[in-house]
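Example S7 (structure tokens).
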């Protein structure tokens, strides 16, 4: 059942402080492994359930601390840290596992409250991120893990005001996260990700970004999708919740980049920027289809850039200028070469 109320969270910081705009404006980034596998809890209440997920010979076990398992919303902290590190690397600066930043900058960048309540919620997130234990054989950045580790190694509030608000926060990232950064095992996220209200909406977007990516469409079974989301609901209940999100997106177009369609026991994921109207029907636009070989070549033409972000910018530029593209592969690679030369 849909309503006229937007499913999105309000943009809490539409007028950002110019002094911090460069810091909070770093392009959001997420590591691929936790986008693909159900590391984070969908619950909005303390989740004390240990979980094990297996797929194709890979397995991951997630164990909560006394504060519960790290949630999808707690992941905002890691996204912010990864984004800052990747921005530094792209500027030719070195990065380290231990990083210090202003708590306010993180809250603004991730569309969180900057009230006293917002700082308390950030403290809770740090506790869960440090306490949640992961054991897996998944490869991250070329390494295979057979050990238990946390999502962050440690977190410290360096300065705190009298009313309890954090000023400086120092976080030491886990090997798991830092290896992904060093090996560029990272994908760009849409900034509207932080406006998504429901944990399941965020998780669906992450999975679509990882698996559909630059493809026009991708299919997955409802049951498999439920498992990849880390849902504890029955298949029937998961289908119902997914249906609500699909209906809301039809009415409000609030899901970033991808459209979800339920087709029997399968879910079809389609990129929104390649959907056009043909004789009254929504069909994928094949005119700007890029080959996998082109995407691979783009990395060498624009080293250090996220090629999927470049592709989104290229498509938006072509649409805005009304450019007639006869050879999409050659046109896109030319675009990448020009961007690469600006480094």
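Recovered sequence:
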């Amino acid at each position: 059942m849909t309503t006229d109320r937007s499913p999105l969270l309000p943009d809490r910081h539409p007028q950002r402080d110019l002094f911090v705009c460069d810091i909070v404006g770093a392009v959001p980034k997420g590591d691929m492994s936790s986008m693909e596998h159900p590391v984070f809890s969908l619950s909005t209440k303390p989740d004390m359930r240990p979980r094990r997920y297996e797929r194709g010979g890979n397995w991951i076990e997630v164990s909560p601390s006394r504060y519960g398992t790290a949630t999808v919303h707690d992941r905002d902290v890691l996204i912010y840290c990864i984004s800052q590190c990747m921005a530094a690397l792209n500027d030719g600066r070195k990065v380290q596992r231990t990083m210090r930043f202003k708590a306010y900058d993180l809250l603004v960048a991730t569309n969180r409250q900057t009230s006293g309540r917002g700082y308390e919620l950030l403290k809770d997130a740090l506790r869960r991120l440090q306490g949640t234990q992961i054991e897996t054989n998944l490869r991250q950045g070329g390494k295979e893990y057979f050990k238990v580790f946390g999502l962050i190694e440690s977190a410290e509030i360096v300065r705190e005001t009298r009313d309890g608000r954090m000023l400086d926060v120092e976080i030491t990232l886990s090997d798991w996260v830092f290896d992904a950064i060093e090996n560029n095992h990272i994908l760009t996220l849409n900034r509207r990700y932080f406006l998504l209200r429901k944990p399941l909406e965020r998780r669906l977007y992450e999975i679509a970004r990882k698996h559909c990516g630059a493809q026009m469409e991708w299919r997955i079974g409802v049951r498999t999708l439920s498992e990849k989301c880390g849902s504890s609901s029955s298949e029937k209940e998961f289908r119902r919740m997914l249906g609500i999100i699909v209906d809301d997106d039809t009415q409000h177009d609030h899901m970033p980049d991808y459209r979800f369609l339920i087709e029997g026991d399968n879910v079809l994921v389609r990129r929104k920027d390649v959907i056009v109207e043909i004789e009254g029907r929504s069909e994928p636009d094949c005119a700007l289809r890029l080959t996998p070989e082109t995407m691979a070549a783009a990395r060498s033409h624009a080293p250090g850039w996220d090629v999927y972000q470049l592709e989104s910018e290229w498509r938006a530029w072509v649409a805005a200028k009304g450019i007639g593209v006869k050879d999409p592969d050659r046109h896109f690679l030319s675009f990448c070469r020009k961007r690469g030369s600006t480094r």
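Notes on this example. The chain has twelve helices and 16 strands.
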